[in-house]
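hey
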């Protein structure tokens, strides 16, 4: 399962980076919930994104990223949480 999580994280991050500029105009400062290289929602708070993700995706294969141009270290929030 760790290989699946790493692949999910890497693919989601790549998708996020390639689409960041498009997201900024409408979602800057929000947290994007990603799964399988798709944005599945935007949230005002990281905890809100996490709670929704855990409820929707029991396999916990998802990522959460802050929509900003500034690099931000979110720790476990930025990876598929185990």
């Amino acid at each position: 399962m760790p290989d699946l999580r790493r692949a999910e994280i890497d693919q989601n991050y790549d998708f996020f980076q390639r689409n960041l500029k498009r997201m900024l105009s409408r979602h800057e400062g929000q947290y994007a919930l990603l799964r399988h290289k798709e944005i599945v929602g935007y949230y005002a708070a990281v905890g809100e994104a996490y709670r929704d993700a855990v409820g929707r995706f029991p396999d916990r294969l998802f990522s959460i990223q802050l929509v900003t141009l500034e690099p931000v270290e979110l720790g476990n929030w930025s990876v598929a949480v185990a």
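Helices lie at 2-27, 46-56. The first strand starts at residue 31 and ends at 35.
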